[in-house]
Write a structure and sequence with these properties.
49% of the residues lie in helices and 15% in strands. The chain has 371 residues and is of the alpha/beta class.
């Protein structure tokens, strides 16, 4: 059996197309302890997530964490699960559908968009195989992480490169490593906040930009993520012309006893409530789609912290999800990254492509090439 995967029915001169691998972190298959155990085992074993020596971490992971955490996580996921399943997967699939429509209208040649999750299903490998089977020899990998982090963006790169090591004919790859300061992304965030305030009729006393945290040690070793989070928030605040005392950045979802990047979201909200801040809005710009960390942790858990500490009004401003300005920004990023590829050429037409393919096949036959 061959070590490398390849298309056995390939014909010389076959038409090709652009592929877009739209990725996100992932989700369990169901809000059950067994499904969470499988998901967490894959997620937490990634050395990009936990950098401890593997033998030591294996003992901690299997001897303690995977014995207790799946039950608690299953309960949390159950509180946000819908009839359609995982909110994150459902939204990402719809983002894929819209992106496919937008790109099909704007790219002269054929283009195919598929969804893949770094952990869980559909996997990175499944997504790549689907694109390769469709003849995509030029692929844009698009992780939906505006701010770069080794634990998210680089982990996706690891999974892509690992899978392609088993492929015989490697496609041309372009990789979007982040878009934390993209004007269209910043504008979409500012629009979502502005519209939320207009619908309610008032502005809050404070606006909190809450981003997923990373260990402080990762930042110290060179991960740019916290700096890019600060930059995103500052650009949005400038776009909204906010007073510097009316907004702040904080980091959520810390795990374990080690120090993570500060300040912490839950601590800030408790301090605000105790200090007499009556109203607070929280937005999570690092999440392209609502998920457990936004809907349950920010929408419910941190709401309780703020109100119990003395606050009176608390709103979570949803992720950008399926907003038109958001999907337009995503499409524009892809369009920029495919420049120079044949299918992106405005002069590309199917007739020319088919004629070229026929000529190539005829030449291959005359030269005795295998088809």
């Amino acid at each position: 059996m061959s070590r490398y995967q390849g298309k056995t029915d390939y014909t010389h001169g076959s038409d090709e197309q652009i592929g877009v691998l739209l990725t996100n972190l992932g989700t369990p298959d169901a809000p059950t302890p067994s499904a969470l155990r499988r998901y967490l085992a894959e997620f937490l074993w990634d050395p990009r997530i936990v950098e401890l020596p593997r033998p030591l971490w294996w003992l901690i992971l299997h001897g303690s964490i995977l014995r207790r955490r799946p039950q608690r996580s299953a309960e949390a996921y159950g509180s946000i699960w819908t009839e359609a399943g995982s909110p994150l997967l459902e939204t990402t699939l719809e983002q894929r559908r819209i992106l496919q429509l937008l790109l099909s209208e704007r790219v002269a040649g054929p283009v195919k968009v598929v969804v893949a999750m770094r952990y869980g299903s559909p996997s990175i490998g499944q997504g790549l195989d689907e694109l390769l089977a469709a003849g995509c020899q030029r692929i844009v990998v698009f992780p939906l992480y505006p701010q770069y982090s080794a634990a998210t963006t680089a982990s996706t790169f690891d999974a892509v490169s690992s899978h392609l090591q088993r492929v015989r004919w490697i496609p041309e790859i372009r990789f979007i490593t982040g878009y934390h300061s993209e004007p269209a992304y910043i504008e979409a965030l500012a629009n979502s906040i502005r519209e939320h305030w207009q619908r309610r009729g008032t502005r809050p006393d404070r606006l909190l930009f809450s981003f997923h945290g990373i260990p402080h040690d990762a930042w110290r070793k060179g991960d740019p993520y916290p700096c890019q989070c600060q930059a995103t928030a500052r650009l949005v605040a400038q776009r909204l012309e906010l007073d510097e005392n009316s907004w702040q950045v904080a980091f959520q979802s810390r795990i374990g006893r080690a120090r993570w990047v500060e300040p912490y979201t839950d601590v800030i909200l408790k301090e605000w409530g105790a200090a007499g801040v009556e109203s607070a809005d929280v937005i999570c710009p690092g999440f392209a789609a609502d998920c457990l960390e936004t809907l349950e942790e920010i929408g419910r858990e941190n709401r309780r912290y703020f109100l119990d500490a003395g606050g009176k009004n608390y709103d979570y401003i949803p992720a950008l999800n399926l907003r038109t300005d958001h999907t337009e920004a995503l499409a524009a990023l892809v369009m920029r990254h495919i420049q120079g590829w044949p299918e992106a050429d405005p002069e590309w037409v199917p007739e020319k492509r088919q004629s070229h393919a026929a000529a190539s096949r005829e030449l291959a036959k005359r030269q005795g090439a295998v088809s």
